[in-house]
Amino acid sequence: MSEILSAGSIEGVVRKDVPERVISRLPIYLQAVETIAAIGQTTVSSETLAAQSGVSPAILRKDLSQLGRSGRRGVGYSAQDLAATLRSFLGLDRAQNVAIIGAGRLGSALADYAGFQRRGLRLTAIFDSDEGKVGTTIGDLTVSAIADLATWADPIDLVVMAVPASAAPAAARIAAEAGVRGILNFAPTVLDTPETVRVQQVDLASELQVLAYYSALETATATPVEEHSN
Length: 230
Prior knowledge:
- The chain is α/β, with parallel strands linked by helices and about 230 residues long.
- The chain contains eight helices and nine strands.
- It has two domains: about 20-90, Winged helix-like DNA-binding domain superfamily/Winged helix DNA-binding domain (Arc Repressor Mutant, subunit A), CATH 1.10.10; about 95-205, 3-Layer(aba) Sandwich (Rossmann fold), CATH 3.40.50.
- The protein has helices at about 20-40, 45-55, 55-65, 80-90, 105-110, 115-120, 170-175, 205-220, and strands at about 45, 75-80, 95-100, 120-130, 135-140, 140-145, 160, 180-185, 200.
- The chain has a seven-stranded mixed beta sheet, sandwiched between helices.
- GO terms for molecular function: DNA binding; DNA-binding transcription factor activity.
- Its main location: cytoplasm.
- This is Redox-sensing transcriptional repressor Rex.
- Belongs to the transcriptional regulatory Rex family.
């Protein structure tokens, strides 16, 4: 049987005590439950939500219990209340201002990503150190000089780093000094930032290498072993 999630705040839940592996799954649950709510479904069972999230029902229920949510059994989770709880816990109950540093091909492509707004993230600025790109327009935004980040009118919460490795450390320092609390780093280098700045590394080549390993493993497993007779 599944639980009914009661409405309310998440007071008493200490975010830092929730394991990182659980936090990494919460956005997946949020996307799944918001998709369910969007088609007019008011409740969802843990089995259905788990299937759409790619985890087992037991893992999903345990993860949600980390947010202090259990409740009555029998009907399922209220889609609206569960979405509100997840958004609040993830800090998406207010819009998070996001900036992209780097107006090259990757930065331009990321600026066109429509998912920011749907996920409670507001892309407010694009910065670059190249004077030739400053003043150009990408989508609805004008590229600004990276030096302007420190005095930007709307404080930037999160930054997407889409610059070459050589430019990333200096850009990260500017972002940290401007009060940015999180950096999603596409640059293939490790950033040295203060403890107040969380860095999430995105290394596409490394991820593809991991996939290559599993692809080779599957190929080796599927290849029949020939029997040789004497």
